[in-house]
Design goal:
Keywords: Signal. This protein is an alpha+beta fold. About 25% of the residues lie in helices and about 35% in strands.
């Protein structure tokens, strides 16, 4: 059963900005083994997926958020349902007066497909 936070994140990630560049990759890391304390339903999340997107905005937080939404939507589109999300980012451009920010954001997760 998906948590409320997971459903909210999934709903937010489906919003897509047409101005972003998205790349999706399935990492060749093989199956992930779970220990005995792991919930049995989590064992089906064995496909590592990653996507990168460019996010833009008036603040660094908005730019990162926009990039994460875009990349997360791409991961979900390829992976079906995902868990264990992580995010990293790097600045591509910051206006001299800090009025516009551009970040490349990479999102990774374990997915069922």
């Amino acid at each position: 059963m998906e948590s409320r936070t997971g459903r909210r994140r999934r709903a937010l990630l489906w919003r897509v900005s047409a101005a972003s560049l998205v790349t999706v990759t399935a990492l060749g890391l093989g199956a992930v083994t779970a220990d005995a304390a792991t919930d049995q339903s989590a064992m089906s999340y064995t496909v590592p997926r990653s996507a990168s997107a460019v996010g833009q905005g008036r603040t660094s937080d908005v730019a990162k958020h926009n990039g994460a939404q875009e990349a997360g939507a791409a991961v979900l589109a390829a992976g079906g349902d995902c868990t264990n999300w992580s995010q990293s980012d790097r600045a591509l451009f910051i206006a001299p007066d800090s009025s516009w920010w551009v970040y490349e954001v990479t999102v990774s997760a374990l997915c069922v497909h």
